[in-house]
Amino acid sequence: MAQATATTVTLLLLLFLSSASASVQDYCVADLSAADTPAGYPCKKVTKVTSADFVFAGLTMAGNTSNIIKAAVTPAFVGQFPGVNGLGISVARLDIAPGGVVPLHTHPGASELLVVTQGVIYAGFVDTANNVYVATLKKGEVMVFPQGLLHFQINAGGVTAVAIVTFSSSNPGLQITSFALFANSLPSPVVEKVTFLDDAEVKKLKKVLGGTG
């Protein structure tokens, strides 16, 4: 009886290990020629996967900060780095020139972890109870921004600040509050109503950020 029980257990264990091994997929390199979906990109055929799919060199170069916010983000999301597809991770480089700012924004699909590698960054976020959490971050210091919450980064020193930013998604998404309000075609009277700003201020901001209406 004991022998039969041991044999049964062994067979069940072998069956479990066999089925588990068969169901595991090591990776799903994105097939960027196909359409993206809420579940991510479909997988590239394994026979077409190369080492280059798992390497991204774009973060070695500084971003172009000659813009209205004096800041640049160089992403290594799934669209630039197909090897992260389906892995729940991605990374980016943040460059903020003196006087620069990354305005209030959210990442609907991911939490963010920021590591300062150069300069000083004043950063913070606002939770859903409108509590504010801010810190002045120096080289080597880290701050986390929970998924979906409004947050910002400002250069707080006299030199360009640089940070490496990681995300808990291969495609974290981005919505910048100022651009969402003033860089689109939403009619000015509507923007005035939802922001409590007067007509002159709304039209001024729309002009600066490229909005219409």
UniProtKB/TrEMBL annotation:
Annotated Gene Ontology cellular component terms: apoplast
InterPro entries cross-referenced by the UniProt entry: Cupin_1, Germin, Germin_Mn-BS, RmlC-like_jellyroll, RmlC_Cupin_sf
Q: What is the protein name for this chain?
A: Germin-like protein
Keyword Metal-binding carried by entry = yes
User: Where's it found, cell-wise?
Assistant: Secreted, Extracellular space, Apoplast
Disulfide linkages recorded for this protein, renumbered to the chain, are 28-43
Q: Where does oxalate bind?
A: 107, 112
Domain named Cupin type-1 is located at 57-203
Superkingdom, taxonomy of origin:
Eukaryota
Classification lineage: Eukaryota, Viridiplantae, Streptophyta, Embryophyta, Tracheophyta
A Pfam family for this UniProt protein? Cupin_1
Sorted UniProt keywords: Apoplast, Disulfide bond, Manganese, Metal-binding, Secreted, Signal
Protein family membership: Belongs to the germin family.
Per UniProt, Mn(2+) binds at 105, 107, 112, 151
Which positions carry the signal peptide feature in this UniProt record? Answer: 1-22
Q: Which GO terms describe its molecular function?
A: manganese ion binding
